[in-house]
Amino acid sequence: MELTVAQMAEGVRRANHAMVDLEQALNAADAKLGDGDTGSMLVRVIGGMAAAAPETATSVSEAFGKLARAGMSATGSSLGTLFAGAMLLLAKQTKDRPVDWADLSALVGAARDGMMARGGAKLGDKTVLDMMDALAAALEGKTDAAQAGKAGIEAAERTLEAYRDRPCKMGRAKFFSEKSVGLDDPGMLAFAGLVRALATAK
Amino acid sequence: MKKLMNDPAHYVDEALDGLTLAHPSLMRDGSAGRVIRRAEAARKGKVGIASGGGSGHLPLFCGYVGQGLLDTCSIGNVFEGPNVDSCMEAIRLADGGQGVLRLYGNYGGDRMNFDMAGEMLEDEGIRCTTVLGTDDIASGGPDEIERRRGVAGLIYAYKCAGAAAEAGADLEEVTRLAAKAVAMTRTIGVGLAACRLPSADRPSFELGENEIEMGIGIHGEPGIWRDTLRPSDAVADEMVERLLADLPPSGAEVSVLVNGLGATPLEELFILYRRVHKKLAEAGLRVVMPLIGNYVTSMEMQGASVSLFHLDEELKHLLLAPAECPFWRVG
């Protein structure tokens, strides 16, 4: 089944709506490991993406491009820039071609690899990359929104659980990685929250 | 911990408004007003120098825009890198046709945004080079200098690169001298109390009433040790010993920067300098142009950093060359 611009715009709307509840929880999670602004930063980034009117794009690639530019204007934080940079990469990857839900696994994988090259983190460092890696695997062979949503939520929950008791090896938290044992990484937590919001209609 | 502000969301823009109103030599530019540049346009034929970083460190970064220093500076939110747009705009506005040196601290977000800006500017034909400040000895051993954070010592690289560019050096030469200045600078900080972000309702970390932390970063990154407060002389002795133990082979002259992190009285910085000077003299080093004051701050963090900039004739000449910006005048 083909992924449409309308579905993307609906996804951004849901993500933006979800940030109302996620903001403080993410700030609190970040306050334990960083400077406590992950939620507020993502509110700006995703709010900017919603305001960029992705529904007016004439292709999936153009919609990703709009989201990338809006995200880049909204922040300079590492996580926000990585997120917007991934959108730019997806705009290039989907240029001049229709995109199918079955392509999503490969696209998430490409975004993961692009973010890894840009940010310098590795898989296993307990970052958003581990979440994306799990999601790419979970989306393999899923051909519509319902299947992708269900698999995505399961993968996100499982990955948070699996990494909770491991140390963070990237970002400001790497300087005191033993303190991060038992805590969720704010980037992973944000990604899980957004996957949940995207997959659950309200 | 209180702040004189209106809305935390307007903290940075209102500060930049005030800065440029007070100093007509500076101008806000860029699509979101997040580039500070010299009021006069980039000089044709001069190599441009662009810097950038998060807010919360004034006079760093944008306070060093001026004659013999930086041409432009992109500004992010408090402790958050400048966005890609403002990095691109800062590079473009610094370009006088001879290329632009991007000179900023070694932080993931800043690096990422300047790199992306560079990639997006490739089609515009502006030649760019990059030098990163990596002077903080607490954030990596001598064998992993590329991992070290950039802190107060970055201003020596600003000064030397700026002097070279002003004198007409080409991009390769300005880049070489900036890298040489970074290589000859070492800094260590000490923290007595934490800072608070404008949007947060509590300090960004806890430091006990009678505690001190050696090697703390300018965003409160953890240091080397934390212990009970001790006399200033003992603190100065340890800082100088650590700095001298880390330096590459160097000459007999050194510039010293004793820098306040935002909430330390100048008196305390002079008490610290008094001992630093003595220790350097004992080590056979002559101090050239000591700098004591708030040069690179961390909001209202209490504490100080000490930087040593080891000089040879080339670097000394660049350090002493005339320069002028709102917060620093030389010659």
The major pleated sheet of chain B works out as:
7 strands, mixed
The mean pLDDT of chain B is 95
Gap from first CA to last CA of chain B:
39 Å
Please state the overall shape of chain B, judged from the principal axes of the Cα atoms: globular
Main beta sheet strand tally, sense and closure of chain A: none
Assign the structural class of chain A, choosing from mainly alpha, mainly beta, alpha/beta, alpha+beta, or little secondary structure. Answer: mainly alpha
Q: What value does the Rg of chain B take, in angstroms?
A: 19 Å
Shape annotation of chain A: globular
Beta-strand level of the residues of chain A, as a percent range? under 5%
Number of helices of chain B: 8
Order of helices and strands of chain B: HEEEEHEHEHHEEEHEHEEEHEE
How many DSSP H or I helices of chain A?
A: 8
What is the residue-mean pLDDT of chain A, rounded to a whole number?
Answer: 93
Percent helix of chain B, as a range, is 25-40%
Radius of gyration of chain A: 16 Å
* Share in β-strands of chain B: 15-25%
Low-confidence stretches of chain A: none
Biggest interface, which chains?
A-B, 24 and 30 residues
H/E element sequence of chain A: HHHHHHHH
| SS elements, strand count of chain B | 15
Oligomer kind:
heterodimer
